[in-house]
Q: What sequence folds into this?
């Protein structure tokens, strides 16, 4: 009798617990006790004007990564529009990409977000407005596969450097010359030959994603590599 009684009590408790759990789930959905839902945890840490880096899947991006001795081969600048987060990026052509989509384009969805150290003091509403106005003028322009320091075409890190320079009056890092990079790797040599033939502009001013990422003016906000 005692055994039957204990079984009955156990079943009753299990049924009661299951019903209570069901009601709780209805009243308090998953993560209702969390300030941010998982899908919003990333966006909640990001601010207007942050710089985001990733490794892209292409032969040119691989050559950039090798030449600059960096894990990064692509970058963009995050801008808020109507409460939503987008990445202004120089691809073919220059465009605005929703943040979530941009992240998915990188290798293994990995990325790093950097921020100007004194962003709270410098990147006020007026400065951000200037940065956005300067940057968005490039939308639709062709990607610069030749890495020329002109505004006719533009590449990813060049776009960000110029946005900060012309919109906020900040030079994120010193410019380099093409010859300063590691150009000896055969994969890099292949891309250079395709682009320039035998006339490689070794003295062309350039800025790479790694130059921006290593800038002493920025700090890491998110690193999921």
A:
């Amino acid at each position: 009798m005692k055994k039957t009684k204990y079984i009955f009590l156990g079943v009753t408790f299990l049924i009661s617990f299951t019903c209570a759990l069901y009601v709780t789930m209805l009243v308090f959905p998953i993560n209702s006790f969390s300030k941010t839902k998982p899908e919003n945890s990333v966006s909640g840490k990001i601010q207007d004007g942050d710089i985001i880096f990733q490794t892209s899947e292409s032969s040119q991006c691989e050559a950039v990564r090798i030449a600059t001795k960096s894990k990064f081969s692509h970058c963009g600048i995050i801008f808020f529009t109507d409460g939503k987060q987008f990445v202004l990026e120089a691809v073919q052509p220059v465009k605005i990409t929703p943040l979530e989509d941009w992240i998915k384009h990188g290798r293994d969805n990995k990325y790093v977000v950097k921020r100007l150290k004194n962003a709270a003091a410098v990147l006020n509403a007026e400065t951000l407005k200037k940065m956005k106005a300067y940057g968005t003028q490039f939308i639709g322009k062709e990607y610069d596969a030749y890495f020329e320091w002109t505004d006719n075409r533009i590449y990813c890190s060049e776009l960000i450097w110029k946005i900060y320079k012309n919109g906020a009056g900040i030079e994120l890092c010193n410019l380099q010359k093409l010859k300063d990079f590691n150009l000896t790797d055969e994969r890099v040599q292949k891309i250079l030959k395709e682009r320039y033939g035998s006339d490689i502009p070794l003295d062309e001013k350039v800025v790479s994603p790694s130059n921006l990422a290593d800038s002493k003016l920025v700090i890491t906000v998110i690193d999921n590599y």
